[in-house]
Automatic annotation (TrEMBL):
<keyword id="KW-0067">ATP-binding</keyword>
<protein>
    <submittedName>
        <fullName>ABC transporter ATP-binding protein</fullName>
    </submittedName>
</protein>
<dbReference type="GO" id="GO:0005524">
    <property type="term" value="F:ATP binding"/>
</dbReference>
<dbReference type="InterPro" id="IPR050166">
    <property type="entry name" value="ABC_transporter_ATP-bind"/>
</dbReference>
<dbReference type="InterPro" id="IPR003439">
    <property type="entry name" value="ABC_transporter-like_ATP-bd"/>
</dbReference>
<dbReference type="InterPro" id="IPR017871">
    <property type="entry name" value="ABC_transporter-like_CS"/>
</dbReference>
<keyword id="KW-0547">Nucleotide-binding</keyword>
<feature type="domain" description="ABC transporter">
    <location>
        <begin position="7"/>
        <end position="238"/>
    </location>
</feature>
<dbReference type="InterPro" id="IPR027417">
    <property type="entry name" value="P-loop_NTPase"/>
</dbReference>
<keyword id="KW-0813">Transport</keyword>
<dbReference type="InterPro" id="IPR003593">
    <property type="entry name" value="AAA+_ATPase"/>
</dbReference>
<dbReference type="Pfam" id="PF00005">
    <property type="entry name" value="ABC_tran"/>
</dbReference>
Amino acid sequence: MKTTPVIQVRDVEMSYDTPDGTATILKNCDLQIREGEFISIVGRSGGGKTTLLRIVAGLLTPTAGEVTIKGNPVQEALNDLAMVFQKPVLLPWRNNIGNILLPLEFRGKVTPKMKRDAQDLLELVGLADAGSKYPYELSGGMQQRVAICRALVSHPQIMLMDEPFGALDAMTRDTMNLELQRIWAETGRSILFVTHSIPEAVFLSDRVVVIGDKPGRVIADIKIDLPRLRTREHRFSPEFAAYEHQVAELIGVKEGIS
């Protein structure tokens, strides 16, 4: 893992004008993400986690501060980014290969090699036979795997993920955590991951960044010193429980919140 930051968030602030005055969502946010790191952002609802992610994605312009990717302003580096949302957002009239190839179609002609790459990604996530099927033929967890393939197909250096497993049942979410960890290990992408689940953040991450609210700001950046690749058994270790407790104490909630 390289030590040079691939994402640098410096003194970012986000405010909105409301009928009652100015509402500040984020203030004095600083964050560094190095190449190949898996970083989770946790905090209370309304604390600005998704806002920060969207600023990094270039979907929002901060009121103050800056975000750079490999030293360049975020607007000039969008080809290095891909985003996975809370829901798969797949087009129902396109089969799964067609959904995966959509970002490449926006950029120009889709080549046979790109189609092979899309099929390879489906094999990577265990959906080798799903290319010709349509989203409605897949479970929620499978649809989210297709959405992850869509994010990976343009070979981004950075993946931004906004609670991608929040709508899944507990068993499917557990499986997707293991699947995402494997994909991350095999692709070497840098991942910035927003979640409300403390156990999920501890399980997946190299570092857990805790956002305090009113206004949102980074109040802790915790290195997770647990073995890779992690298994379900790691969740029952004293070390894992200690990290959960530490994060929960900082947020001010009971351990294990999801």
